[in-house]
Amino acid sequence: MTKILLFILCMSCLQVSAKQIVVIDPGHGGDERGAVNGKYEEADLALQVSKKVNALLLKEKNIRPYLTRTVDKTMSLHERVVFAQNLKADLFVSIHINASTNKRAQGGEVYIKNQLTPAKEKAYLAQFENGKSKHPPKKVKDSMFFRRTKNTELVGILESVNDTFNLKLASLVAKDILTAWGGKKRLYHERIHQAPFYVVKYNKMPAILVELGFISNTFEAKKLSTKSYQMKLAKGIVKGIVNYFERIEAQPETPLYSRVLEQ
């Protein structure tokens, strides 16, 4: 049964674009400043790094990047998800700056959609990042599979298979980014977390949320504000994204696109 569902899922991935579409999402902006430490604000730092990531991705011949915002403006989480859905993106990368009550906390982390109950601290972080956004009710007719079959039970099963597939792909790109950053003693599985972030949970394509570092750590906040360190982080993210697509393309048995293009 599982093999049949995967076959249906793969056959539904109809068109292959000349370029992989990647949406880069600078967290917060406008009225939503995110985490703040004195003059350092998450909204500004996230946008600065995101622009660098976008500029580097534009140089990749097989990737077409888009930014959810290019200026300091307020944008709801729902708008960000719709933006990616309308582009039929192949990958969604949301960029944020972390914060903690532990002023010594440092280093980058990557979050993927949660299938397990998140730790209390991670759940609190997700609640902070999600802000006032309400989770939309899930309707069968909103499913990208609804045009393929009106069998609501089958739609639910296909959604579950697709979610699992996307989770695996998100895990791959998360590890690739952390590998590209390098220089950390902590193991990858300790830096890849699951939490109910809105933009990760409600996107239909593989989606991750990258925490560049801890703004609550004044030393790290200063580093995050420098152009050289921002470029280092941006290059690591881009390398991880490029490696991810190359890895998927090298495995012909694994479909490159988990999305279903609606007609």
How would you describe the overall organization of this protein?
The chain has 263 residues and is an alpha/beta fold. Helix content is 43%, strand content 15%. It has one domain: Aminopeptidase (3-Layer(aba) Sandwich), CATH 3.40.630. Strands 4-1-5-8-6-7 form a six-stranded mixed beta sheet, with helices on both faces. A hairpin with a 2-residue loop joins strand 2 (36-37) and strand 3 (40-41). The longest helix is centred in the middle third of the chain and has 30 residues, at 152-181. The chain is globular, with a radius of gyration of 18 Å. Mean pLDDT is 76; it is low at 2-16, 137-141, 143-161, 184-189 and 255-263.
Q: How are the SSEs ordered, and which strands pair?
A:
Blueprint (H helix, E strand, L loop, with lengths): L1 H11 L7 E7 L9 E2 L2 E2 H16 L5 E5 L9 H11 L3 E8 L10 E4 L7 H11 L21 H30 L10 E3 L3 H4 L5 E8 L3 H7 L2 H23 L14
Parallel strand pairs: 1-4, 1-5, 5-8, 6-7
Antiparallel strand pairs: 2-3, 6-8
Helix pairs in contact: 1-5, 2-8, 5-8
